[in-house]
Design a protein that fits this description.
With 327 residues, the chain is of the alpha/beta class. Helices cover 44% and strands 17% of the residues. It is built from 13 helices and eleven strands. A four-stranded parallel beta sheet has the order 3-2-1-10. It has a four-stranded parallel beta sheet with strand order 4-5-6-7, covered by helices on one side. It has a three-stranded antiparallel beta sheet with strand order 8-9-11. α5 runs parallel beside α7 and α8 runs parallel beside α9 (225-235). The longest helix has 22 residues, at 301-322. It is globular, with a radius of gyration of 19 Å.
């Protein structure tokens, strides 16, 4: 396992793709998960993409890229236009040497807010991947769906309806909290299919609406990486661990019947684990062991970014060594 960063983590530095790679190298990270491939080359120029990939390889940095959201309901120009867009991006990524591709289904909060029922979004994503089968198989590429606001249950449905050589998982270790999934249980569910990661940590605590998630640097929150990393390493020893860090608050409205109804796969046991974790953190906040949500959120992320990245990098590298997961 190697510890790198997701480019979104340092977006406020406004660096070029080469600048992002240089920053990662200077901070002793081992690679970069980039955003949409069109941010690397607007016209998807194979030469530009290959040159960037070569630059990363020369500096011994892993790189991965993302493709456009595969959900036709959130793409303004419809199914056929999206399919054409994705085909071009898959081909361009392959020309740059990238075959494990990151994407998502839920662009914002469509799971909860979109007028079209969420199960239809999943069905459309399945249909899209199956229609992309010829080009994915031609280039030996795979679409890895992030646990963005998608649940691990959702992604497993997509994998079962497509094929695991076409569809995999980008596990965001703290986004699972958004749907009240326990990070360890979520990792176990999809471990055989994980090819990419967003390594993120958060605390969760209780609120009037349910639970609140607040981002923290890896090792400073409630995600149990000591349990999760061996689960991931069993199936993918070379898995890239790309830190995606930021602030912002997210609420899971677990006290609301409509919210519960929109998470039919969530079991009482798993919800109980989440509530227990939130209660423990609530007690830490009440006892002054952990800063309050409002107090911690006051400092702009950019003012803490470098310190958080160093902490997360060192924490994960130490954990990898202690657990014997070095590659």
């Amino acid at each position: 396992m190697k510890v790198g960063i997701d480019a979104f983590t340092i977006r406020e530095l406004n660096l070029s793709p080469y600048g992002i790679l240089d920053y990662a190298k200077s901070m002793d990270f081992k690679g970069v998960q980039f955003g949409n491939i069109r941010t690397l080359s607007e016209n998807l120029d194979a030469g530009e993409l290959r040159t960037l990939r070569d630059y990363a390889d020369e500096h011994d940095l892993y790189t991965y890229v993302s493709i456009t959201c595969i959900n036709p309901f959130v793409y303004k120009d419809g199914f056929d236009s999206l399919k054409e867009c994705l085909e071009k991006e898959i081909a361009a990524a392959a020309a740059g040497g990238w075959h494990e591709l990151h994407t998502y289904i839920n662009g914002d909060m469509e799971r909860y807010d979109h007028p079209v029922p969420w199960n239809r979004h999943i069905d459309k994503a399945i249909h899209m991947i199956n229609r992309l089968r010829p080009i994915l198989e031609r280039y030996g590429s795979r679409i890895n769906i992030e646990t963005h606001v998608e649940t691990t249950f959702d992604i497993l449905k997509v994998i079962e309806a497509t094929d695991d050589h076409l569809t995999g998982v980008c596990l965001d270790t703290a986004n699972t909290f958004v749907n009240a999934e326990d990070p360890v249980l979520a990792a176990k569910r999809v471990a055989p299919y994980i090819q990419l990661t967003h390594i993120k940590d958060s605390i969760i605590t209780l609120s009037d609406e349910g639970i609140v998630r607040q981002g923290r640097a890896p090792g400073m929150g409630d995600v149990d990486f000591e349990k999760i990393l061996p689960i991931l390493g069993e199936y993918c020893p070379d898995l890239p661990l790309s830190i995606e860090d930021h602030k912002w608050l997210f609420v899971a409205n677990i006290f609301d019947k409509e919210w519960i109804d929109k998470n039919p796969d969530l079991t009482a046991y798993e919800l109980g684990q989440i509530v227990q974790l939130a209660w423990k953190t609530h007690q830490k906040i009440s006892n002054g062991v952990v800063p309050t949500i409002d107090e911690y959120e006051k400092t702009p992320y950019l003012d803490e970014m470098k310190e958080r990245l160093i902490y997360g990098r060192d924490y994960l590298n130490d954990l990898i060594h202690r657990l014997g997961l070095c590659t």
